[in-house]
What we know:
Oligomer: single chain
Protein name: LacI family transcriptional regulator
Number of domains: 3
Helix content: 25-40%
Keywords: DNA-binding, Transcription, Transcription regulation
Domain HTH lacI-type: 2-58
Mean pLDDT: 89
Strand content: 5-15%
Low-confidence stretches: 51-63
Strand order of the largest sheet: 2-1-3-4-5-11
GO molecular function: DNA-binding transcription factor activity; transcription cis-regulatory region binding
CATH class of the largest domain: Alpha Beta
InterPro entries: HTH_LacI, LacI/GalR-like_sensor, Lambda_DNA-bd_dom_sf, Peripla_BP_I
Amino acid sequence: MSTIREVAKLANVSIATVSRVLNNDTKYKMTEETKNRVLDAVTQLNYIPTTTQRKKVIVANSSICKDAKIGCILRVTKKGYNDPYYMSILSGVETQLREVGIDLTFIKSAPILQDKISLASTFIDSLDGLILMEPLNEEIYRYIKKRVPHIVGIDTLRDDIDDVGYDHLQNGILATKHLIEKGHKEIGFIGGSGESQDIKDSKRYQGYLIAMHKAGLPIQKEWIIDCGWNEDECVAKVDDLCKSTHFPTAFFAASDLMAMAAMKSFYINGISVPKRVAVIGMSDIEMSQYSNPPLTTYHVPKEEIGKIAVNLLLARIQGYATLPQKIILSTTFVERSST
């Protein structure tokens, strides 16, 4: 394990300077260049500062630590905007933490943590726990895992930490089955992938395939739209398909945002929803009920996911020791006018 002396040597500064950076000591002036050198050395050497034992304050009739330091890594859209789905989950996280007198220490997005200096500065101070809404690449994930004793994921699909979410595979089957039951035989899929960048790894896509194969329905390659969870790319790719000679009579979009982006493209091309093409989404974000037409979707209990993740994280901080748990919440079908 690296030492503070080795960090100081690599950064070409004194041990005292390293200590000031790690403790955010602003008493003495320091250039950004010096600070960045120290943080870069911390990252290169995988240095983990010695954590100090903080005094634990017990809430009446509870064993939750009021001064627990908890961070959150929030998933954002490909354009860097806040995703309404994850913002609803974040609302649940913050609501549940406030119930026990805790505020989040920080909220960061994965793109920001791609920068090594930002990553190092974010995790300089010790944390008791982390809510992780982004799977992250292996390098960043392992860096964080070494520094944070308790992590609860939300739809990360990681086996070595607790994870809370809904059954993506089963809901992919159910959404596609709804379109089949409506009489559609030509059904497309709109979605994206995670870190693998391969849509075949998407559980919702796999659910679509299972439902289609079970019904004996054909799957056309050109009807599978991988837009990388980017609304603009979704609009452009659906627009290209609309101009082709043959497109399906229905689409399962793996998120409400992508469903509404697709419906925007259909509207621009003068294609009626659901008369010419039906669309079903997934998640039931608030704006889906106000789309034109209102979107048929599956309601995912987003705030409840956030609250349950917090409860599990606090239990872990207090010593609840079991194998990693996977908590799956039920969804509810919401039929509106788009199918």
